[in-house]
Structure formats: C-alpha cells, structure tokens
Amino acid sequence: MVPKLKDPSLLKQNVCYVNGEWKPAKSGKTFKVNDPGTGELVGTSPEFNTDDTEAAIAAAAAALPSFRSKTGRERARMLRRWYDEMTANADDIATLITWENGKPIADARGEAAYAASFFEWFSEEAPRAYGDTIPATVPGNRVFTRREPVGVCGLITPWNFPAAMITRKVAPALAAGCTVVCKAPGETPFTALALAELAHRAGIPAGVVNIVTAMENTAEIGQLLTTSETIRKVSFTGSTAVGKLLMKQSADSLKKLSLELGGNAPFIVFDDADLDAAVAGAIASKFRSSGQTCVCANRIYVQSGIYDQFVEKFTDKVKGFKVGNGFDDSITHGPLIHDRAVSKVDQHVRDAEKKGGKITIGGQTLPDLGSNFFQPTVIRDMTPEMAIASEETFGPVAGLFPFETEDEVVKMANQADVGLAGYFFSRDLERVYRVAEALDVGMVGVNTGIISDPASPFGGVKHSGFGREGSRYGIEEYQVIKTITLGGMGKSLQA
C-alpha cells in the first residue's frame, strides 16, 4: 500500500529549491529513495553537483543584503508564517518522515511538531538580538556592541530526524538575518523539500532558503560548502569522523562552525532511584527511533543492588514491543535506515555475546519483515571490553553494565572520547548535583530519559563537537558581534 498525502504537491520529485524556484540537476541525473520498511520506491530526487550548488550559494548571497536589513520583527513574522504552514500540514510532514525514514507514524507526528516548534521559538527570538553598552576606560569614549548576521550559511543535516534537524538550524539562521544553503540527506530528501515548499508558501523571499539534494555527490558538495569564501558559517550534524573532515576543509576560509557529532551516552541507575521510573526512562531513551538518535542511551549502568531487578523489569518492557512497518498504528518500532546499519548492530551483538554478554531478549535480524529490521535487544553482564562500551551502536540494542560505586561509574561514564548526553536516576539530592557536575557531557538528564526541547541548548563537548542549537544560545551561533567606539564624547555642556 502506497502512502497518500492530503496535499500531493508536497512530494517534490526530481527538483530542488533554489532561488525561490524548483529546479532539476543540470545534468538531469537523479537518485532513488526507497522506503526502508518495504524496500519499495518512494521517488527520485536530483543528484546535484557542485555547479548546481554554486548556483544556490550565489542565490543566497544575492538575497543576503535585503534580508539582513529587515527588522527582527519582520523576520519573526516570516518564521511564524512558516510555523503556521508546518502545523497546518503536520500530517503530511509526518507521512513523509515515516515513508522515507521508517520510524513509526506516532513518532513521526511527534517529530513534525518538534520541528515546527523551532520556527515558533526563533520567531520569538528574532526581535531580541540585543547588544551591550560598555563603560569605556578612555575618557570621552563610548563603546557599544551590536549583533549582526554572520552571512550565508551552509547547513548539512542527517537522516534520523529529517524535519527537526533542518528546522533547528534554519530557524535561528533566518532569525539572525542569515540566508542558507541546506544539503538535505540523500536517504530522506523529500521531507526537506516539503519544508521548502512550505517556506515558499509562507513568503520567505527568494534565495533566503535553498535546499539541495545528492547521494553520490554528497562529499563534493560538503567540500564546496566548507571551502567557499561566500559561505561564512557551516553547521553540521552527523558522525565525528565527517565532522573532523569538514572542520579541516573549513580551515582555509576560517568559517564559523557548529558541529553536533557522535555520542555514546551513559545512562546510570543508582540503587536509590525510583526503579519503575528509571526503567521507563531507559526505555524511552534507548529505543526512541529504534536507537537511531545521537543522544540515546548507549551504555546503561545499573548499581549492583538493583541490577537483577532492573534487568527483569527492563526486559519485560521490551517484550511488549511490536516491530513492523511504520504506517501500522499497532507497531512500536520500525526498521533501521539501511542494511549497513543492521550489519553494525548485528556485529555489536555478536561481539558482546562472544565476550560473555547474555542476551535476555532479541539478538537477531527479522528477515521475514525485510532486510532492514532487527529485534529490539537486551544484553546483560556487559563489560568494558565489548564494542558497545566504546562505540555508538545507533540501533535497538541495550547493553546493561553492573557497577558498585558512584566513583566507579562516573569514571566509566567519562572514559568515552565523546560527550554529548548523559543520564542518571537518583533520589539523593546531594548525589544529583554531584554527578550532574561530574559527567563530562554537554547535556545531562536527571530522572528523565528525554531531554530535547527547543528552549534547551543542545550540543556536546570533546569529540561530540561544539556549538549549541535551540534555546536563546542557538541564535548566537549565526551572529557576530560588532563593537562600535565613539570618540570625543566627553566635552562638557556649555552653560
């Protein structure tokens, strides 16, 4: 059964959005996008190359002077209209997300609402780009600052949140007065292109938002965005390895960068925790989008006094999962994005099993459902030597590690070279402060497994990158500070 959109015009095939117009690749080349759940064709999207992308960059540059000169309130109204278009078309956005990403339709609806919330949030931040008046040390001087847009921005987004990862970047960029060229993920281009259509309907001026797609040419487009002198800022969400490459490529043009990279989140359950709440939080964190999120729990540490109880309760919850096609309202978890993701998950499970881990549920592929399905899996008695302890699985596998003391588990949690998110459950107020401050990550969830919120700054430390998205800090990533000093202001008034 082929999904149907209420508004079929939102499915944009064989064209990208450049300078307010829908354009094919100059070469005429396209690539196929398949439903990860069924393997069936969703559609075809343009295989843009560097020439096509140069045209998008030129359009963004041409639109910048006019757009940056608009008031914050004018840009706020534009973002609000884009938000209204997204909410009015939320069902179709959710359908596109499930169709090309595979996540359950209920999760996709949640993402559509979450994605729209960034337009709402930054429409409210746009008029509030405050500067400062600074007391000068030189008599007669007056010093003040103003925040200005950094310029044309290159945005590179991942497939796991096809709508939200775009809006979380585009919204603050536009709020600041920047124009953008967004490279949409090849696995999930149609959600991005639907957002572009809604931007057009909302009256976003031509050239302000440009969205390009590619599969084979992804690397060369990334290199163009990072080396172009026209682009003054690059924001990337994806793997640490690619983030490091983009940072190297950006060096010669000294771009401003925001990098939201890989994670390996520790999830700690102390023996004084509310056990049922901890199980529910771990389930929500670990298995959201079948474990394909950068902030999902990857290493679950449980204190020895409650370890066996936790394993039993956690496993029982996973027994209630139903895996299948995302459009089936009864299913809880959909497919992985492609067969390479399945292979990595399987390798991690086999490695843990070989080194003494015990599978309490799952552990196998589900070929009867399709090539991209893997059973939600729980493995107990994990040890630091196993691959899951040091590598991000990005799949539906929960590895449970026993621990004895607070000092021990904080040390284990901080051994990773990445530091995006961390979680822990405890009812000891002193421990809450102590451990929250000790975890070497950018974001900490205390007694919760879900931390995403447009009002909350999102980002990591160490090899998880730098910069923050969302919140009042998110707009600062797209601004530069200009200092203005006025001299000769100290003459006294004449009587």
Concise synopsis of the structure shown:
The chain has 495 residues and is α/β, with parallel strands linked by helices.
CATH fold title of the largest domain: Aldehyde Dehydrogenase, Chain A, domain 1
Mean pLDDT: 97
Rounded to the nearest angstrom, the distance between the terminal CA atoms is 87 Å
CATH architecture of the largest domain: 3-Layer(aba) Sandwich
Principal-axes shape call: globular
- Portion of residues within helices: 25-40%
Strand order of the largest sheet: 14-15-16-13-12-18-19
Could you tell me the radius of gyration in angstroms?
24 Å
| Relative strand content | 15-25%
CATH level 4 superfamily of the largest domain: Aldehyde Dehydrogenase, Chain A, domain 1
Q: Please, how many helices?
A: 15
Characterise the protein shown here.
The chain is of the alpha/beta class. Helix content is 37%, strand content 21%. It is built from 15 helices and 22 strands. It has helices at 50-68, 72-88, 90-101, 105-125, 164-176, 189-201, 218-227, 240-249, 275-287, 307-319, 339-354, 387-390, 406-413, 429-438, 471-474, and strands spanning 16-18, 21-23, 30-34, 41-46, 133-134, 142-149, 152-156, 179-183, 209-212, 231-237, 256-260, 265-269, 297-303, 358-361, 377-380, 397-403, 418-419, 421-425, 443-446, 461-462, 465-466, 479-486. The strands form six sheets. The chain has a seven-stranded mixed beta sheet, with helices on both faces. Strand 12 (265-269), helix 9 and strand 13 form a beta-alpha-beta unit. Helix 2 (72-88) crosses helix 6 (189-201) and helix 4 runs parallel beside helix 5. The N and C termini lie far apart (87 Å).
